[in-house]
Fold this protein.
Amino acid sequence: MLEVKNISKSFRGLRAVREASFTLPEGDINGLIGPNGAGKTTLFNIIAGVYAPDSGKVVFHKREIQGLRPDQVCAAGIGRTFQIVKPFAGLSVLDNVIVGALHRERSVASARSCACSILEKLDLARKSALPASSLTLPDRKRLEVARALATRPRLLLLDEVMAGLRPTECDRMVEVFRELNRADGLTILLIEHVMRAVMALAKHIGVLHHGEVIARGTPAEVVRNPAVLECYLGEDTEV
Amino acid sequence: MSRSHLALAALLALLLSLPAFAGPYALSVATLVLYSAYTGQAWNVMMGFAGQLSLGHSLYVGVGAYAAGAIFFHYGIGPWAGLWVAILLCVLLGVAIGFLAFRFGISGVYFALLTIAFAEFTRIGFDHLDWTGGPGGMFLRVAQRDTWDIANFRGPPLMYYYAMLALASLAFILCYCLLKAKAGYYWQAIRENEEAAQALGINTFRWKVYAVALSSAMTAVAGVFFAFYYNNLFPEQIFNISRSIEIILGPIIGGLGTLFGPILGAAVLTLLSEGITELLAALGWEIPGVKQVFYGVVLLLVVMFLPHGIWPAIARRLKLDA
């Protein structure tokens, strides 16, 4: 479904992503992990159309999408959340999601009913009339997800949506994504530091370090991979 | 009918019947209030709804006024035809500015500077344009003030009052409908966070250009009114940056991005300005600049104590919708 081929991107000489490649089959939940500054978010932003890569291709449903604008990527069927949440603070929670739903719905009324059902799914229905600025961080993360889902993506890119959540809230979120994946066949690619969530959700994991994919495999394989352990803990491990 | 609808109906009835008990002076003040309410609403579409700060809206008033005025002056063609020329010219200008700015990622204060630049060099351009009278100004013939000559938009002050009332009401209805529609959601999303709006599939470039186009078209109509109401146009006056500031003060004081804010702001500011003049005359204080000081102090107080404008505070208290 999604194929990332030899993507490279530099910022003023800093090579943020080097020759990164991976594939994501339809219907899978895959994780992308790596230490801070490994280039995960940059890679996400390239897929989502925020940056054009210096070289390489992003193929989504047999169509090359690298270099498209973010709104075109969204129209192609890829939804995303932001690591640093970006709610429409002055609008109500419901209106935030309606903006997303209007992407596929013709009328505001149908967008509203679509938004309501998504808010229900994400436990935000009771807060739908509140201004988004009044939400707590966990709720803002949920709102990010709700908004992205409202555009009815076939692939959802989640950038650290579990960060800052308590373990029970994290488990609840994991359940939501499992359900979306199972019931709607939604494909998910998540960047995550919270291993609890990655281990519970991801079928395959890619590990990014200094912009390169250093390991790929099932969660169990990846956590035993020496290269992965080294990049997280360093060569001279002092525990 | 909700409380808001009732309040609006009452206000409209009051404004419709105002000429019955208002003298010539009060009527001219009321016309001025409606005029600034209308231009405020036009500017509010761009800044209040879509978050694009224009500090050069005098450009559209001026170009609109000069376009319709010059066509009338040179060819005797009335404002109903000139109106469309004015709108077309202003939309082209607005779209050109928007295109330049948004294509090259100029936003925020830099966008505001660009709008000032366009207004300023248009002012200088008109100073050197002999066809419109240059710096000496352009004067439209004032044939008669007694009968309603609607074809040429010539008539008594009452006609201008009702014309402005119609414009302000139409603008209100238009803004109301837009806010409830897709455009309103998209513009507000762009205003709140452009990056997130784009990630949700909104072509932000296109929607920002739409906002500028609509705002400049609405302002052009105000320019046409200006030309036929005042009958004299000077580049130094009409394109002056202080004109642009006057346009934006109403919506800011009244409540940015709200439907009623620009109208309330216009009423408060115009009545305040006139009231201070009256008060100072009654007191016999003839110190130059004292009016501006009073005006400034009141603006400061509003900004300090009601940073979101007067209307949101009132709406909360009266439990009305924005």
